[in-house]
Amino acid sequence: SQQGEEDPQALSIQEGENATMNCSYKTSINNLQWYRQNSGRGLVHLILIRSNEREKHSGRLRVTLDTSKKSSSLLITASRAADTASYFCATDEGAAGNKLTFGGGTRVLVKP
Amino acid sequence: DSGVTQTPKHLITATGQRVTLRCSPRSGDLSVYWYQQSLDQGLQFLIQYYNGEERAKGNILERFSAQQFPDLHSELNLSSLELGDSALYFCASSVGLSGDNYGYTFGSGTRLTVV
Fold it and tell me: Which tens digit of pLDDT belongs to each residue from B13-60?
């Protein structure tokens, strides 16, 4: 079963615009991670935010976490055509389960 | 190259057959995880091994089994294959028991097609 629900399921933007996607989850977590997957290829780890953190930045990526609402958001600023991919949030429950539980993903298309 | 190596990249086989997928974790990583990605189920955790021992189990069918060898590479065995087993199978590795500190490193996957 999937822990996270991502919204929107698909997103189409112009190059240079910002892309925002949201993730909601159900149980208590140790951390939440975001991954990128180019069409049919491997998952690339983007960023990890711990349950006691509220915001984290990495380059053009900004992740927020609201544990009271059990939700997270990923913002990609100044998007590029190369950002076209599917983005997945994944929750790590830590000691409760040494595994990631993935959401359904958001397909992002950045048009040049 | 993520450092996690999966072979083969593609596999086509018939229903009822058995296949073995192989994963070599990133150097220094002791944990190996197997995930299945299909259109209808999304990304599902199958099983985790840490330093040769099974540590966590997810939605893994009884027809599937895995092991981790002393050199830390892992194999996922899928038997009595059905059409619904067609999917992308990912291996991931982490330094410790979980990816809490540094996340998980994924391989590029094995695409299994059952015909």
Answer: 999 999 999 999 999 999 999 999 998 888 999 999 999 999 989 889
Q: Which long-range contacts (CB under 8 A, 24 or more apart) does B35-40 make?
A: B35/A100, B35/B89, B35/B90, B35/B91, B35/B92, B35/B106, B36/B87, B36/B88, B36/B89, B36/B90, B37/B87, B37/B88, B37/B89, B37/B90, B37/B109, B38/B84, B38/B86, B38/B87, B38/B88
State how far the alpha carbon of A69 is from the alpha carbons of A66, A92, B10, B66, in Å: 6, 17, 41, 37
Integer Cα distance of B90 and B88 in angstroms: 6
- Helix and strand numbers (H, E) in chain A are 0, 11
Residue A63's CB is within 10 A of a number of other CB atoms, namely 23
Beta bridge partners of A47: A34
Say if the Cβ atoms of B100 and A92 lie within 8 Å.
Answer: yes
A contacts of B50 (beta carbons < 8 Å):
98
Write out chain A residues lying below 8 Å of B2, CB-based: 42, 44
pLDDT at A2 over 90: no
Q: In B, which residues are within 8 Å of A90 by CB distance?
A: 43
pLDDT tens by residue, A35-81? 999 987 889 999 999 999 999 999 999 999 999 999 999 999 999 99
Residue A76 CB neighbour total at 10 angstroms:
24
Choose, out of A34, A93, A100, A107, the residue to mutate when testing the contact with B (most B CBs < 10 Å). Answer: A100
